[in-house]
Amino acid sequence: MQSPIFSDLSLSRRLERAEGRASASFVDTRARLYPDSGAESIEVAGALAMFDGPASPITQTFGLGMFEPVTAVNLGRLEEFFRAHGAPIFHEVSPLADPSALALLNERGYQPVELTTILFRPIDRDVRLAATRNERIRVWVAGEDEQDLWSATAAHGWSEFAEVAGQVAELGRVSFNIPGAVCFLAELEGEAIATGTLLTSDGVALLAGASTVPEARKQGAQLALLEARLRHGAGAGCDFAMMGAAPGSASQRNAERHGFRIAYTRIKWRLGQ
Hints:
- Helix content is 33%, strand content 29%.
- The chain is of the alpha+beta class.
- It has two domains: 115 residues, Aminopeptidase (3-Layer(aba) Sandwich); 115 residues, Aminopeptidase.
- An eleven-stranded mixed sheet has the order 1-2-3-4-11-5-10-9-8-7-6.
- The mean pLDDT is 91.
């Protein structure tokens, strides 16, 4: 029997580090593929800070206060990193962070602006979800020669979101080329209809990149992709998977239906203007 996993500081460190590393890898890959983008990541006192453009949701920090107390000097270094790039200053902070994080964020005039529920579940090579699969959907790991197909499918699925309009092709190329990222495709009746990405770090399988083309939604593509990614992550040596969702959202409810538990709710803080 697998030992239980508790929602404690040790778990939060692994989750926050996994997501931080994935975001830093995305930013570093963009910098490599698009040198003029100005994309950059740094690490300060265990916190990973990413700049991916002033309006990018990836432009923020992960892990503040998770590995050592937050000091005014280190927080100042992070703030200067974003100011140097002309970007707003965001920190996504776990409730298990050292109390010094909240004290300094309040002292320096930060405001809470967003909540994210972090969910996790144990996985193994034989994981099967408690839901009926659409057997007509086939899922596989995209090969190097399928980069354009994966990117185009992801772009079609993301195209309705205004925040990525005009960037979908570039986002797809960057995501596909992240070192260690495993990109999945799902097809129905010979047509690619959905994508998903898996990134692993310190035994954590991070689920990202979920996208289904509008005309093929609600047919089970994401269920098939979820099961395939969980199995792949277990095969790569991960003992649990993680994902994020808006609190109380359909995404959170679906995750809980498939064996995910809520680890905690994270707060995103922004420095006032």
